[in-house]
Design a protein that fits this description.
Length: 361
C-alpha cells in the first residue's frame, strides 16, 4: 500500500505543473516562443527554397487537379478544431466550473464532426461508382456497398475514441478516486482488446487476398451501444456518489456517525476543511517565526487530500507536505516556522487546483 501511495505521489508530482502551471513564468517565456516561431518559419522557407529546383520563368500556372479515378479527401478543419479543443480542455481543468464544461462540449463536438467526415469518405468510396472518385462533393448515385473491387479499406471504428475515453477516465481516477481508476482501466483494456481483434481481422483479410487474389473487406462491427451505456451509467453513479448526490446528503457522515463540521481542532493553530475537491477555507493566518499546527478535515468520502505548503505559487518550492489520506477523516499537521514577509500558499498535492493563501504575521 505504501508503494502505491508513493507511486501516486510521483505521478501527481509529474502532472502538477501541467494542471496548475506557473502562469507568471510562462508569460515571461512568450517572447522566446515568438522568436523560436520566427526562426523556425524562416528555416522552413530556406529549406523549401533549397529543394525547389531550377526556376522556370514564363510557365503557365495550372490549377491543381486530381487525376481521373483518384479520390482525394477534401480539406478539413476538424484536426485543427480538435487540437484547439484539447488545449482548451487541458487548461480548463485548472479553472473548473463553466470553462471545463464548455471546453468538454467543444471537444466532443469536434470529435463527432471528424467522425462524420470519415464516415462520409468511407461511404463515398464504398458506393462503387465513378462519382465516388471525384474530389468535389457531388451526391453519391448508389447506396454504399463496400470499397471498389480489389481495394482494401478499413471500416470506420469507434475503438480509437473509446480507448481515448478509457484512458481519460483512468487518469481522472488517479486524481479523484480508486473506483474511477479501476473503471478507466477496464474500459481501456476492453477497447484495446477489441481494437486488437479488429486489427487481426484486417491482417487475415489482406493475407488471404495475397494467396487467393480475391480481396474481401471485413464487415464493420456494430457500435457497442450496450457497453457504452453501461460504462456511462457506472461513471455517473460514481460521480454522483462522490458529490453526495447519490446515496448521501450534503454533509458526509464521519466514521463515528456524526456529521463532520469544519470546527476548530482543539489546540490547533488553524483549521482547514476540504469538500467537493475544494478547500472550504481559502485563507489562513499563522504566526511568524514560530511552529504551528493545522487541523485538516477531509470531508470527501473516498477521495485523497492533504495540505502542502509552497513558497510563492502552488508549483513553487515545497516547504512542508502533510500526510495524504482518504476522507472522511482528519489529521493534525505540525508545521515548521514560516518567515514573515514571504509569500506562501497551501495546496493539495493530489489536486493542484485546490489552493489557499497563507498570511504570516
Amino acid at each position: 500500500m505504501e508503494f502505491l501511495r508513493s507511486l501516486l505521489e510521483w505521478v501527481i508530482s509529474l502532472l502538477g505543473p501541467f494542471v496548475a502551471p506557473d502562469w507568471g513564468a510562462l508569460i515571461k517565456l512568450i517572447p522566446l516562443g515568438v522568436l523560436l516561431l520566427v526562426v523556425a518559419f524562416y528555416g522552413w522557407v530556406f529549406w523549401r527554397f533549397r529543394r525547389a529546383g531550377p526556376r522556370r520563368i514564363g510557365m503557365p500556372i495550372r490549377k491543381p487537379q486530381a487525376p481521373a479515378g483518384i479520390h482525394l479527401p477534401g480539406p478539413s478543419l476538424a484536426p485543427f478544431l480538435i487540437s484547439a479543443a484539447s488545449a482548451a480542455l487541458f487548461f480548463s481543468v485548472a479553472l473548473g466550473g463553466p470553462a471545463l464544461a464548455v471546453s468538454g462540449l467543444l471537444f466532443v463536438l469536434a470529435l463527432v464532426s471528424w467522425g462524420r467526415e470519415a464516415v462520409r469518405e468511407y461511404d463515398a468510396l464504398g458506393a462503387g461508382s465513378a462519382m465516388a472518385l471525384h474530389v468535389d462533393d457531388a451526391p453519391v448515385a448508389t447506396a454504399p456497398s463496400g470499397p471498389p473491387e480489389g481495394v482494401h479499406l478499413p471500416p470506420p471504428s469507434l475503438l480509437p475514441l473509446l480507448v481515448s475515453a478509457g484512458a481519460a477516465v483512468m487518469l481522472f481516477g488517479v486524481a479523484v478516486g480508486l473506483e474511477f481508476a479501476l473503471l478507466g482501466t477496464l474500459m481501456t483494456a476492453l477497447a484495446l482488446i477489441g481494437w486488437l481483434l479488429d486489427a487481426g481481422r484486417e491482417y487475415r483479410a489482406t493475407a488471404e487476398a495475397d494467396t487467393t487474389g480475391h480481396l474481401v473487406n471485413p464487415t464493420p462491427r456494430k457500435t457497442p451501444r450496450v457497453a457504452i451505456a453501461l460504462f456511462s451509467l457506472v461513471f455517473l453513479f460514481f460521480a454522483g456518489s462522490q458529490a453526495g448526490i447519490i446515496g448521501g446528503s450534503d454533509a458526509s457522515p464521519s466514521p463515528s456517525g456524526e456529521p463532520v463540521a469544519c470546527a476548530e481542532g482543539g489546540t490547533a493553530t488553524v483549521t482547514i476543511c476540504a469538500q467537493l475537491v475544494a478547500f472550504e477555507t481559502t485563507s489562513i493566518t499563522v504566526p511568524a517565526g514560530a511552529p504551528f499546527t493545522i487541523h485538516f478535515v477531509n470531508k470527501d468520502e473516498g477521495i485523497p487530500h492533504n495540505v502542502a505548503i509552497h513558497e510563492g505559487t502552488g508549483t513553487g518550492p515545497e516547504v512542508y507536505q502533510g500526510e495524504i489520506f482518504n476522507g472522511i477523516d482528519e489529521r493534525t499537521y505540525d508545521v515548521p516556522a514560516l518567515t514573515a514577509g514571504m509569500t506562501y500558499v497551501y495546496v493539495c498535492t493530489v489536486h493542484p487546483n485546490m489552493l489557499g493563501a497563507i498570511v504570516v504575521q
